[in-house]
Amino acid sequence: EYQEYLTQTQARERGAYYHELVTLVSEFTGETPQAVMAKVLLGNENVKQAWAKSNPQTPDEVRAFYGQGDNGYLYDLISWNWNELYWKIIAGLDKYFNETALVIGAGLGTEVTWLKYNNEVLAFELNGVLRDFIDWRFPGVAMKSSHVESINSFYREYFSLIVCIDTLEHI
Q1: Which of 128, 85, 84, 88 is nearest to 106 (CA)?
Q2: Cβ contact 119:96 at 8 Å
Q3: Is 123 exposed, middle or buried (0-12, 13-18, 19+ CB in 10 A)?
Q4: Rounded CA gap, 74 and 130, in Å?
Q5: pLDDT for the residue numbered 114
Q6: Which of 66, 89, 110, 113 has the most other CB atoms within 10 Å of its CB?
Q7: Which residues 6+ apart lie within 8 Å of 147 measured at CB?
Q8: Bridge partners for 102 per DSSP
Q9: Positive or negative CA dihedral for 129, 135, 136, 137?
Q10: How far apart are CA 103 and CA 112, in angstroms?
Q11: Beta bridge partner(s), residue 163
Q12: CA dihedral 152, 157, 161, 164 (to 10 degrees)
């Protein structure tokens, strides 16, 4: 029964992905995997503390906050990206083939990972640490800032799939 539970919840796969994300963030930040895991265990407390310290009030300040490397968001995203609920949300992405996909709010790149083998994928992430991470993890996948201003004019003609998961609450 326990083995069936592990299979049904994808616990093994999620655990392996957790370790992959910890390793990637460790390599990206220069921290030890143990330091990254310790921060992941704090979950959104990292972001909560950084938010209180920064106290952003305007949209520009909020964008700047999410761009900072010390805001704790990388670690919070690891926690979310291996969560069972999140995997249920993104489970349908592996059914898409031969699409031209745009991932808005790419974060750590999990949606990009699920889509990139069978589709052409571009990712949008705000300038800053998450954008730097996406550029580092998937060279050439992140949209350039000049493209962002013109998304409204060409997205219907260019993209056949737009993915925006766990992003809108930040806007």
Answers
A1: 128
A2: yes
A3: buried
A4: 7
A5: 93
A6: 110
A7: 122
A8: 122, 162
A9: positive
A10: 7
A11: 103
A12: 0
Q: What residues does 120 pair with on adjacent strands?
A: 100
Q: What sign results for the dihedral spanned by CA atoms 26, 29, 32, 38?
A: negative
Q: In what order do the strands lie in the sheet with 161-163?
A: 120-124, 100-104, 161-163
Share of the chain above pLDDT 90, in %: 62
**The amino acid at 46:** N
Instruction: Give pLDDT tens digits for 36-80.
Output: 999 999 988 989 999 999 999 998 898 889 888 889 999 999 999
The one-letter amino acid code at 15 reads: G
Tell me the average pLDDT of the chain. 88
Q: At which residue do the structure tokens 């260019």 appear? A: 158
Q: Report whether 104 contacts 27 (CB < 8 A).
A: no
Compute the radius of gyration of the chain from its Cα atoms.
17
Backbone angles phi, psi at 110, to 5 degrees: -65, -45
pLDDT digits (tens, 9 = 90+) for 139-155: 988 776 545 555 555 56
